[in-house]
Design a protein that fits this description.
The chain is an alpha/beta fold and 429 residues long. Helix 3 packs across helix 12, helix 6 packs parallel to helix 7 and helix 7 runs antiparallel to helix 13. It is globular. The chain has a domain of 215 residues: Dihydrodipicolinate Reductase, domain 2, CATH 3.30.360. The protein has 13 helices and 16 strands.
Length: 429
């Protein structure tokens, strides 16, 4: 502290950097911590690489179009071709990638030597053939999550990816590349909540999943999520991202799951539940209590981590830390913005806080600047891994782990039973 009882600029940077820079990589640590005291403070450049990478997007449904929107703003992403077997889907996609060529045959795209990176955004039960062909063609592959609708297919994909080490394989578990989630990961690794006791998560939306089509055949293609033989259910289509986030934060896989569900909001003949509730046991007394619904939007998507020293809650790309009254105070809290969270007061958690501190900018005043979204950062990290020739943010093992968890939760929902996870389910051949 300085003589006027306010933290000095140096103590502010040091204290904040230790907390906010943890485990997001050395490039996010403070320059002052990495440089001998005799040397001046160095500025690091965070400009993304701009070397162009020719890309293709296969599957032009909702997620495929979201990928195109993201790629339109990712530096160096050149969308050369798009693909969908349904020709009318091309028109909407070309509005997002107007310079691309359209095809109905993904094999023609894979034959194009100029295309280096392929996004696979088809329905999950169609992933296997496309991914295997893309890997065999020497392409870098970004496969949406889950890897597949069965564990057997997921293991086949993961095995093929591992056998192609010169190619970057990334799974669409986009939370692992998202700055806010990385920031909170660092805080949890520092033990800011002390002993974690419970995790709660939910994903609630009011939507039927049923689509309109001109023919019965097209209707079946669009409504694959409502086909019990093809659909990974709410846990596979939605919950997988939150299950993966919790497993990543806890650095372990769940031990078992107990779940149930049913058709509550949309009794239209479907047999895929539109409401599920699951409890995942992570061992050591820690559980994830999860719910997902298509019939009610209250609370939207959120994750809450409860510990003996406080709680971290994440809602719609915003995060807060709510401290217990007797929890120790960190120096950086002096500079944190406070907001009411129900009857409590939360400290606002800011993505990229360490970087902003390096640039001598106040992160509390820049909270709402970053509107790129998690998918943008996932696509950006994939291209950066290709350029650098490094491991992706979420590789084949990460994808298999998340897929096994999500599909097992879905099976527990279908059977209404407790299922213990088996080690061999997670093994890549």
């Amino acid at each position: 502290m300085s003589s006027d009882s306010r933290p000095s600029r140096r103590s502010f940077l040091n204290a904040s950097g230790l907390v906010l820079g943890a485990l997001v990589g050395e490039r996010l640590a403070l320059a002052e911590e990495l440089t001998p005291k005799s040397e001046p403070l160095r500025r690091f450049s965070f400009e993304p690489p701009v070397a162009p990478v020719n890309c293709a997007v296969i599957g032009l449904g909702d997620q495929g179009r979201e990928i195109l929107r993201a790629l339109a703003t990712v530096p160096g992403a050149v969308v050369k071709t798009i693909c969908d077997t349904h020709r009318p889907a091309h028109k909407r996609a070309l509005e997002l990638g107007p310079k691309a060529k359209a095809s109905t045959d993904y094999r023609k795209i894979l034959d194009d030597k100029e295309v280096r990176a392929v996004w696979v955004a088809t329905p999950s039960h169609l992933h296997k053939d496309v991914v295997l062909a893309a890997l065999a063609a020497g392409k870098h592959v970004y496969c949406e999550a889950p890897l597949a609708h069965t564990v057997a297919d997921a293991r086949t994909i993961a095995t093929a990816a591992r056998k192609a080490p010169q190619q970057v394989f990334q799974v669409g578990l986009q939370r692992r590349a998202n700055p806010l989630d990385l920031h909170i990961f660092g805080l949890l690794r520092l033990g800011i909540l002390s002993r974690l006791s419970l995790v709660r998560a939910q994903n609630h939306h009011r939507t039927s999943w049923r689509r309109a089509a001109n023919t019965r055949e097209r209707q079946a293609e669009l409504d694959w999520r409502l086909d019990d033989d093809l659909s990974p259910g709410l846990s596979g289509e939605i919950g997988i991202h939150q299950f993966d986030l919790v497993s990543w934060y806890l650095r372990k896989r769940p031990v078992s799951v107990t779940a149930f569900g049913g058709v509550m909001a949309w009794p239209d003949g479907r047999n895929v539940p539109d409401l599920i509730h699951a409890t995942l046991d992570y061992g050591d007394g820690v559980h994830l209590v999860y719910s997902a619904s298509l019939g009610n939007s209250f609370g939207s998507a959120a994750e809450t981590f409860l510990g003996s020293d406080g709680t971290i809650t994440i809602q719609n790309d915003h995060g807060w830390l709510i401290k217990e009254a007797d929890a120790p105070t960190q120096d950086w809290e002096v500079y944190a913005t406070r907001e009411a969270i129900g009857s409590d007061v939360g400290l606002v958690l800011v993505a990229n806080a360490s970087r902003l501190l390096q640039e001598l900018r106040d992160p509390t005043k820049l909270r709402n600047v970053d509107t790129k979204g998690a998918l943008y950062y996932a696509c950006e990290s994939f291209l950066q891994a290709i350029r650098a020739g490094i491991r992706s943010a979420t590789d084949a093992q990460d994808g298999l782990d998340a897929t096994v968890v999500a599909l097992t939760v879905n099976e527990a929902v279908r059977t209404g039973t407790r299922i213990a996870f088996r080690k061999e389910w997670f093994e890549i051949g």
